[in-house]
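Private note to self, pasted from the team thread so I don't lose it. Backbone tokens:
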């Protein structure tokens, strides 16, 4: 579509097939110049085509301005890792917020993890150097550390969050020393205020006093773990969206998987997926529409209808219609 944005839609498996159409329905209700192209990936494709991620799907995601991804099942690693690479995503953004009306361990939580998404111990350099002896090489570059720092400080400044840098440079002096130095250089050059926290102690503080934190800039593994910890504070997987941001395009997905235990029943909570669509709107520079979607989801979470994971009896469709009505 000329002058608009092309969105690749990859529902995947299980409840991905149920919550992804819900997010598309919400986006369509906004009357923006968005055009959607649906492509297949996941377990069901492996059976029929011999690969979980057909080239055509990857190429569509590469070319699109943004992608909505649902979830894959057993083939998740074969699907989502190449797709994150296809959008060259250097930043993984994971907001973890508690909502009124949802039973949360810590109702004051409003955190955003900005996680380096390309290196650290997830660089994939592992070996068995002798029988029974294995190693993993941790990669931390100044360039990637500065890039995630710039992104994190921008994100926090635009949205009025405090910044904390998670690290363990007292032990990993060279690699996390590099990470911390790079984040400091970026923060100091901008005159930004920020705190530094050892990641193990930070895990404890996040559980005890999450309200004291905002944006947390993290190395890769720390971001993976701390964001899951925060998910536990706010009331479950059905609520957590995420963004994989690259320099040109980006991919948006709920944190949850294909949920085979409830798939096909029409009762999956669409909130995480719809909130991922709101992050997509932020990314495409529709901040007002993104806020409208978030407010609609928050209204429905507060007043119902609610899906069974939140103690209600409503279907995915009931919740989606209620969100669309509020828009
Ligand atoms: P999961 O997130 O699919 O489910 C964990 C639990 O949370 C289940 O009880 C499920 O019913 C519930 N749940 C998740 N999302 C929900 C929603 N929107 N509404 C209501 N309840 C929800 O994680 P699990 O069970 O560890 O993995 C299931 C499959 O998903 C596996 O095959 C795994 O490989 C895949 N997976 C895929 C991911 C991806 O595509 N990014 C991420 C995580 C898992
Ligand atoms: Mg994880």
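Design output:
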């Amino acid at each position: 579509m000329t002058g608009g944005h092309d969105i690749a839609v990859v529902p995947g498996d299980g409840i991905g097939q149920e919550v992804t159409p819900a997010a598309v329905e919400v986006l369509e209700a906004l009357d923006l110049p968005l055009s959607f192209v649906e492509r297949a990936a996941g377990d069901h494709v492996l059976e029929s085509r011999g690969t979980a991620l057909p080239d055509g799907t990857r190429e569509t995601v590469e070319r699109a301005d943004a992608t909505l991804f649902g979830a894959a099942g057993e083939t998740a690693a074969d699907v989502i890792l190449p797709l994150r690479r296809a959008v060259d995503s250097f930043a993984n953004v994971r907001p973890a917020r508690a909502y009124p009306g949802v039973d949360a361990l810590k109702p004051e939580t409003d955190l955003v993890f900005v996680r380096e998404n390309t290196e650290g111990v997830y660089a994939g350099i592992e070996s068995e150097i002798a029988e029974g002896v294995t190693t993993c090489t941790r990669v931390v570059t100044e360039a990637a550390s500065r890039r995630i720092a710039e992104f994190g400080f921008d994100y926090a400044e635009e949205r009025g969050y405090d910044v904390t840098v998670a690290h363990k440079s007292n032990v990993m002096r060279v690699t996390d020393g590099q990470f911390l130095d790079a984040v400091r250089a970026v923060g100091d050059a901008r005159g930004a205020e920020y705190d530094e926290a050892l990641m193990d102690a930070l895990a404890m503080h996040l559980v005890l006093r999450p309200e004291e934190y905002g944006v947390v800039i993290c190395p890769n593994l720390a971001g993976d773990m701390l964001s899951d910890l925060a998910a536990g504070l706010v009331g479950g997987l059905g609520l957590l969206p995420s963004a994989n941001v690259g320099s040109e395009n980006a991919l948006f997905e709920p944190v949850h998987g294909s949920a085979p235990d409830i798939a096909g029943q029409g009762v999956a909570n669409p909130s995480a997926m719809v909130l991922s669509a709101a992050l997509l709107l932020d990314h495409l520079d529709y901040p007002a529409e993104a806020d409208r979607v978030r407010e609609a989801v928050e209204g429905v979470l507060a007043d119902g209808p609610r899906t069974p994971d939140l103690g209600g009896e409503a279907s995915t469709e009931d919740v989606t219609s209620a969100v669309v009505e509020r828009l």
